[in-house]
Structures are given as C-alpha cells and as structure tokens.
Amino acid sequence: MLDRGLYIHIPFCAAKCAYCDFYSLAGNEKTSIQSDYVDALCRSAEIMSSEFSNTVFSSIYVGGGTPSILPFSLLEKLFASLRENFKISEAAEFTVEANPATLTEEKLRAMTEGGVNRLSLGCQSSNDNELRKLSRIHTFSEFCDSFNMARKAGISNISVDLMYGIPLQTTDSLLRSISDIARLSPEHISLYGLRVEPDTKFGRDRTLVLPSDDTQAEMYLSAVRYLAELGYERYEISNFAKDGHYSRHNMRYWECGEYLALGPAAHSFIDSVRYSYDRSINAYISAVREGHMPEYAECTLLTDEDRQEEYIFLSLRLEKGLSLDSFEKKFGSSAKEKLISLAKPYIPKFMVLDSGHLKFTSEGFLVSNTILSELI
Predict the structure, then answer these.
(1) Tens of pLDDT along 253-296?
(2) pTM of the prediction?
(3) Distance (Å, rounded) from C-alpha 352 to C-alpha 360?
(4) Has residue 342 been placed in a domain?
C-alpha cells in the first residue's frame, strides 16, 4: 500500500479577510451552495476511491476558506464519506482549519466523532485593533473561548496561526501576541509574514501603511528567539512546535511526498504529476454530477530538473535543511557539488553546512527567496 496525504478544500467564509488571496466565497453567495458542494465532495471521493484503492492516507487536512463554517450535518456527512471511500490509517493526523467566530460545541462534536484529532485555529493577533484592521470577524477573547471549547471537546493537538508585519503592529505587540497565545499552551504555532497580494482588499488599498522591511526583520528574529524561550522549536521557516508536534501533513509537502486534493483550486501531487482544478465551484459541482472529475486547470509532469529544483526549494524551508547525502542519491554527485558551490557565497551568514546538511540561518530565512533564486 502507498502512503499519501489527502487535502479537502472548503471554499466558504463568513467574510473575506483583507489579506486573503485563497479561493473562497464570502457572505450570502456561500449559503445556498454549501449542501450541493459537500454532495460534490462526497461524490468526488466515490469517483476517486477505486483509483486510490492501493493507498493508505496517513494525513488528512481540511482547509479553506473556513471549514468550520459548515453546519454539523454537512461536516458529519463529509467525514463519513471520506472514511467510507478511502483507507485511512488508524494513526492518521486529521486536521481541520477553524475560525473562532464559526466554531461551536456541536461542530466540534462532529469533528471528533468523525476522527478529527488536530485543529488549526486562526488568531493572527491578540490585539483587537490589529484584528479589525485585518478584517477578522472575532476578538481575541472569542478566540480564547473557542480554544478552550476545543480543549473541552477533546482536541489535544491544536495549532494557532499568527501573523507579523501587519498594519498597526510593532515588535512589542507581536511579542505580546505570542505571550498571550503561549499562555494557552497550544502544541503548535504558525507565524506567517504578511504578503500583500494584488487581488485583495489590502492590495487595492493605496493608503495601506505597513511596518518597514527592517522592522519586519526585527519582528521575525525577535519572535523566533522568544518562541524558543517558550519551548517552541522552529522546524520550518514559519512553523514552531512543542515536543515534536510537527504538522505531519505539511511535512509531506515540504518533503516532496504525494497527496490527493479535492475541490476547486485544490492542488495534487501524484506519480510525479502536479495538477489542480479550476477556481470555480460551479464547474466542480457540475462535473462530478455528471460522474467525472473536472478537467485540470493545470497539469505538469515534473522533469528531473523540476524535481531537483523542488527538492532544493522545499527542503531548505525546513530547519534541518537539505541532506546532501539524500540529494546526491537522488540527483548525482555533480548536482551536489554544484549546489555546494552556489551556496558558498552565502556561508556562514545566511547558510551553514552542518552534519551533512545545507540549511539557512535565521538571517538567511529572511532573504531565502533571493538566495533560492540563485541556487535553482
């Protein structure tokens, strides 16, 4: 049996955050189509079940959008369909993303009864002024209530999302947010730098004021040090865990593992092929109603060069870095020597060679995109 991951996209939100560029429907446009869409996901699972009968899924990730916006009945139906149509490991990591404003005890019961054992809870900041600027629909107090509700429901593995480089934020306010979150003792914290994408509220706001690049660098480095003091190990550029509670599903992405994804705009990686579906919920529903999966919006068979570039790019996101022995086994000694040669100008300030691994320093992570463009 093959070991793979499973991603399910839920493209619904109560409201669109000012920074969000993911495919999702917000407001009234989402309500009438939720049931039809979950039916389509269940039908997708049926269609794909025979093709993946040789697969055991050891990680499941339900993302969005806001999966927790679905009512109890639809969550229950979706989780039952996944278990009916796919072989899921008894020890699988089963994650669902949630927004504090849409989480209820009933929905948490649907999750736990459906096998969910990990919750990714969006917070972004403990400062309500910063939350309002981000167009978040919850306060920090409401976040804490949802966190405690999840604990009471039996979720023993919770990840919390925070952001840095956001409007109104200072290094001190970021560290206060980290301190406030750490008091709840989640097993995992993700810390993402704000990226302003063109087709977002922030991207269209010509008056938007953000912390300077130097301040954002200070924020990141200060946060990394503080999280380490609090017992959170950085294992990936934006991800920190206590006691080895890494995101197993995301590790699959970074270690070039295979995964199946269902839903509009969802991306899969199977048998050296990366493919995705169109960003259209109506097209997705129509196709599966006809008994087949939608046409691919993109489909790429990776060449050896593609695989090498992806291996470098994804491995170097990790704190442990890129194993030179593994790289040589996959791509040959000449490829390894070329990589080391290209990396030398960045050693020791931005990169280090340590125990057979090439990896970024904390300062290197800040400029990693620029360096990676030279390495690949």
Answers:
(1) 999 999 999 999 999 999 999 999 999 999 999 999 999 999 99
(2) 0.95
(3) 6
(4) yes
Do 230 and 356 reside in the same domain of the chain? no
Question: CATH number of the domain that 69 lies in?
Answer: 3.20.20.70
Q: Whole-angstrom distance between the N-terminal and C-terminal Cα of the chain?
A: 33
Check if the beta carbon of residue 224 is closer than 8 Å to that of residue 239.
no
Given 254, 278, 303, which residue is the final one in a domain?
A: 254
Report CA dihedral (328, 332, 337, 340) to the nearest 10 degrees. Answer: -40
When comparing pLDDT for 24 and 223, which is higher? Answer: 223
Decide if 292 contacts 284 (C-beta within 8 A): no
Structure tokens at 302: 């990776």
Question: 171 is written with which tokens?
Answer: 């290094």
Assess if residue 98 is contained within a domain: yes
- Does 190 reside within a domain? yes
Please answer whether residues 77 and 112 qualify as being in contact, where contact means their C-beta atoms are separated by less than 8 angstroms. Answer: no
Tell me if 124 is assigned to some domain: yes
**Domain of residue 344, residue span:** 320-375
